[in-house]
Design a protein that fits this description.
InterPro entries: DoxX, DoxX-like_oxidoreductase. The protein is an all-alpha fold and 129 residues long. It is 84% helix and 0% strand.
């Protein structure tokens, strides 16, 4: 892939990873509030735990450059869920604009991956040597 594109994907991967990891940590640190929020939108408690896991681990994987495509797919699904279940009635501005941006970034990474400075590339190269 073009070097400029790879650098752009790296920036997107790390930014999405940091944001999602921070949201996962925030939700995990106040799990009772997270469960209450999920209950308020009619979702079961187990889905809150799954969301925390996907956001936290998926975000970390993106930062490290491991399992980029599956992590981006799962994070995209959580953003689609956030939009449909919670943010859509609020409208675009002040509602679903932020999760929509994260969904778009997730879709880009799911479609392309991101190999620049990725731990998975280091592991793959060391195995083939």
């Amino acid at each position: 892939m073009n070097k400029k594109v790879e650098w752009g994907l790296l920036v997107g991967r790390v930014v999405l990873g940091v944001i999602m990891l921070a949201h996962g940590i925030q939700k995990a640190g106040a799990m009772d509030n997270t469960i209450a929020m999920f209950d308020k939108i009619g979702q079961p408690a187990w889905l809150a735990y799954i969301t925390v896991l996907i956001e936290g681990v998926g975000g970390l994987f993106l930062i490290l450059g491991m399992f980029v495509v599956p992590s981006a797919i799962l994070l995209g699904l959580t953003m689609a869920g956030a939009i449909v279940m919670a943010k859509l009635p609020m409208g675009l501005i002040g509602g679903f604009e932020f999760p929509l941006s994260l969904l778009a970034l997730s879709l880009i990474l799911a479609a392309t991956g991101s190999r620049k400075l990725a731990l998975s590339e280091v592991i793959t190269k060391s195995r083939s040597s």
